[in-house]
Design a protein that fits this description.
Distance between the termini: 32 Å
Structural class: alpha/beta
Shape: globular
Order of helices and strands: HHHEHEHEEHEHHEHEE
Number of strands: 8
Largest sheet: 8 strands, mixed
Radius of gyration: 17 Å
Length: 238
């Protein structure tokens, strides 16, 4: 593993503390220990998608909100240099244990608002992380990601995004929360889904997508899940 990059500099007093909005579960060692059993990031398919866009060996890729490193490990296997970034020290500790022998991976404790790659990168990847920021800060974060990328660079964004009208929110949220009735450690329970909607900052696609375009990205493709609770984007910096 490459030497760890310096942690982010102390932000100004008016800036959001991303650790404070990282989500209770992502700072909980017990949750993080079983995260890989609980959540499959479909990393191999995501890497294949990026390879189809010309991102692979020789590329520099930033994994923003890297979590336990499922994508980082899969992307590093292509020969790309991967910088894994997360605000959670607990997540990073688990990730670092996985990549200790990988010379093409560097890690740093930072977030969307504080990470600076000190040079343009080829791609940024982020899955289930942007929703931890309120909408004002999402807009700032998207602008920061745009600045990180070289011209023609790619931002793969996958997140909990609500692609339905606000008038349907109560019915759809109740139905979604009803899918989480698991009672074992490796399944999402109803109270966790309720916690997400109540305490985190997922937003509507019809709010997020104008933010994306305002930041300077072109939306190359957008895919919405059948339940309209997640979205996958390929965004390009012209």
């Amino acid at each position: 593993m490459e030497p760890d990059l310096p942690t982010a500099l102390t932000p100004p007093g008016w800036q959001l503390d991303e650790t404070a909005t990282a989500g209770r579960e992502n700072l909980d060692a017990a949750h993080v220990a079983r995260y890989d059993d609980k959540e499959d990031a479909d990393a191999e398919s995501e890497v294949a998608l990026l390879q189809g866009l010309g991102i692979g060996g020789g590329s520099t890729v930033v994994d923003l909100g890297a979590g336990t490193g499922q994508f980082t490990v899969a992307m590093a296997a292509t020969g790309a240099r991967v910088v894994a970034v997360d605000v959670s020290r607990v997540m990073l500790d688990r990730l670092r244990a996985k990549v200790a022998d990988l010379a093409n991976v560097a890690t740093t404790q930072a977030g969307f608002l504080t990470f600076d790659p000190a040079g343009a990168v080829d791609a940024v990847y982020s899955r289930y992380a942007l929703h931890h920021l309120p909408d004002f800060w999402k807009a700032v974060a998207l602008t920061n990601v745009h600045r990180m990328l070289r011209a023609g660079g790619t931002f793969r964004l996958w997140d909990i995004v609500y692609s339905f009208p606000a008038t349907e929110a109560a019915q759809r949220v109740e139905r979604w929360c009803g899918t989480g009735n698991g009672v074992v450690d490796d399944s999402w329970q109803r109270w966790e889904l309720e916690e997400h909607v109540r305490d985190e900052h997922s937003t509507f696609s019809w709010l997020l997508e104008p933010m994306i375009e305002h930041a300077g990205f072109t939306i190359d493709r957008a895919e919405y899940s059948d339940d309209r609770f997640s979205a996958k984007y390929v965004l390009v910096k012209p």
